């Protein structure tokens, strides 16, 4: 079981390697792949060091699965070349997510649509993944009409350059900037590029990916995505309007019995989800569950998840585990 990690030196690539180790993924040969400037650099994995190789070398080494986290342009260029060599690509960029010929997968929701013919599989956006994990069981029972979501996203979602910017600002050091404004002690209501409709690409990803993953174009979604100076995970305030009414105790029980969700909802004892609680965990944490008193059949909640883990690396590794378990590679 040869496994390649493309973008092995980046934040998500590093997390993928960590999670492959943690989950004891059946790797017989590990192939770290990165840009030319990193070729030859050594990456530790399960007690051994492996030298970073370039793209074509990785293809020639014939891994069974390649976990990609190297950006959209790299994926557009190289994922088809890996796929043409018979390698199954699980891609973390936005390059293939809305391609009608590619599967967009959250294993707990729609892994059953995967086949051996799917050689490029898209990993959804981090903020979408944690939201649909919670929305899906509720949709099955109460039928979602509309979702209004505001996000509070960690600087880790931008990458190491953004983490360094935040840390430099904390220390009063001038350094390279990932954002057009100061992020420390600030909030930036702008993630990814703005589109013609005034929304950002990040916001439109949440709209479009939700419908594709849940196989229901009738679900209306509107989003505002915001970058905040925290580490550990993304937070989301979600307002969900259903066709059917609900009982709050039933909602809590449903979520508590859903794989991948931890309900932390005890306001009397000040228990609610925070990024610090989700850091280095794979679950989605849900709290502040309450009825919207301004509108019928509508629910408010607050959810948090580690964006580098379930929002990216863990989800990709879980897809790979499903492929192996079901003999699709």
Defining key terms:
33% helix, 2 domains, 329 residues, 14 strands, 6-stranded mixed beta sheet, single chain, 10 helices, Dihydrodipicolinate Reductase, domain 2, globular, alpha/beta, Rossmann fold, 6-stranded parallel beta sheet
Question: Explain this structure to me?
Answer:
The chain is an alpha/beta fold and 329 residues long. The chain folds into 2 domains: 2-124 and 312-325, Rossmann fold, CATH 3.40.50; 127-307, Dihydrodipicolinate Reductase, domain 2, CATH 3.30.360.10. It contains 10 helices and 14 strands. Strand 3 (42-45) and strand 4 (48-51) form a beta hairpin. The protein is globular, with a radius of gyration of 20 Å.
What is the gist of this entry?
The protein is an alpha/beta fold and 329 residues long. Helices cover 33% and strands 23% of the residues.
Oligomer: single chain
Shape: globular
Overall tally of domains: 2
By CATH's scheme, which homologous superfamily of the largest domain applies?
Dihydrodipicolinate Reductase, domain 2
Per CATH, which architecture of the largest domain?
A: 2-Layer Sandwich
CATH topology of the largest domain: Dihydrodipicolinate Reductase, domain 2
Q: Find the count of extended strands (DSSP E, 2+ residues).
A: 14
User: What's the helix count?
Assistant: 10
Kindly report the average pLDDT value. Answer: 97
Radius of gyration: 20 Å
Strand neighbour order, sheet with most strands: 2-1-5-6-8-7
Low-confidence stretches: none
Structural class computed from helices and strand pairing: alpha/beta
Give the distance, in angstroms, between the N- and C-terminal Cα atoms: 10 Å
Order of helices and strands: EHEEEHEHEEHEHEHHEEHEHEEH
Estimate what percentage of residues fall within beta strands: 15-25%
Helix content: 25-40%
Instruction: Describe the main β-sheet briefly.
Output: 6 strands, parallel
């Amino acid at each position: 079981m040869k496994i390649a990690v493309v973008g092995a030196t980046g934040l998500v690539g590093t997390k993928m390697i960590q999670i492959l180790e943690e989950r004891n993924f059946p790797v017989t040969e590990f192939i770290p792949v990165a840009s030319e400037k990193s070729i030859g650099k050594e990456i530790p994995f399960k007690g051994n060091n492996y030298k970073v190789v370039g793209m074509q070398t990785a293809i020639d080494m014939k891994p069974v699965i390649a976990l990609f986290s190297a950006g959209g342009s790299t994926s557009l260029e190289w994922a088809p070349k890996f796929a043409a060599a018979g390698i199954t690509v699980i891609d973390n960029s936005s390059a293939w997510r809305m391609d009608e010929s590619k599967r967009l997968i959250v294993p707990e929701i729609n892994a059953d649509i995967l086949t051996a013919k799917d050689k490029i599989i898209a990993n959804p956006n981090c903020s979408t993944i944690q939201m649909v994990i919670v929305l899906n069981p509720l949709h099955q029972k109460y039928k979602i009409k509309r979702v209004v979501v505001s996000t509070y996203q960690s600087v880790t979602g931008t990458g190491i350059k953004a983490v360094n910017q935040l840390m430099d600002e904390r220390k009063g050091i001038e350094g390279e900037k990932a954002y057009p404004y100061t992020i420390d002690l600030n909030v930036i209501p702008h993630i990814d590029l703005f589109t013609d409709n005034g929304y950002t690409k990040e916001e439109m990803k949440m709209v479009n990916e939700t419908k594709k993953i849940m196989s229901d174009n009738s679900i209306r979604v509107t989003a505002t995505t915001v970058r905040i100076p925290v580490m550990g995970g993304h937070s989301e305030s979600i307002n969900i309007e259903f066709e059917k009414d609900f009982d709050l105790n039933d909602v809590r029980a449903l979520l508590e019995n859903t794989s991948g969700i931890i309900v932390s909802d005890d306001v009397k004892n000040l228990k609610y989800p925070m990024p610090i609680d989700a850091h280095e965990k794979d679950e989605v944490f849900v709290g502040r569950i309450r009825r919207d008193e301004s509108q019928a059949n509508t629910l408010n909640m607050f959810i948090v998840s580690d964006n580098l883990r379930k929002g990216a690396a863990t989800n990709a590794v879980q897809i790979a585990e499903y492929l192996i378990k079901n003999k699709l590679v």
